[in-house]
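Q: Okay, next protein. This is dTDP-4-dehydrorhamnose 3,5-epimerase from Cellulomonas marina. I've checked the sequence twice, so it should be correct. Can you predict the 3D structure?
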Amino acid sequence: MRLEPTAIAGVYVVELELRQDERGFFARSFDQAVFAAHGLENVVEQANVSFNVAAGTLRGMHLQVAPAPEAKLVRCTRGAIVDKIVDVRDGSPTYLQHVSVELTAENHRALYVPPFFAHGYQTLVPDTEVIYQVSGRYTPEAERGLRFDDPVLGLEWPLPVDATSPKDASWSLVDPATRRPHFAGEAA
């Protein structure tokens, strides 16, 4: 496996190195030593699967804050998605910038999402499945989100958003004057 850096420090696309023969292929998809050598968190505390019926489904933009921030390793195992993450790290030189990566069952890529990045994706085809390895347990009181259609973020989705959750559609917008997100439960 190779970790390919993106335009935002600490964000990597994980490329598999396939060993192929007449049976198919074998590849290492996670290696704690390789992650540690790149300064990345271990992402094996919890694993989740998301199945999406329709193309155009959007999930996100989610993150967890202190005391339970989490890193993620996201991979599409069936179908195809466009995965986007937004840097919300205080003081980061890439604050509110985003990375967008197409993950498909065919390209076998994964995206490493560091803590304090909002994460979301849109399905490109019906019957799409996504798996996440996560560095921490889901902690509802630490959950936050950004709106997928926030004009300050300027996220462009390849398809019309045909389905999303009421919660994802109701996250607060980033304040255009301060360029700060207002997370529910936090002082404005």
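A: Here is a summary of the prediction. Residues 43-169 form a domain with the Jelly Rolls fold (CATH 2.60.120.10). The CA atoms of residues 48 and 132 lie 5 Å apart.
Q: Noted. On to the next one.
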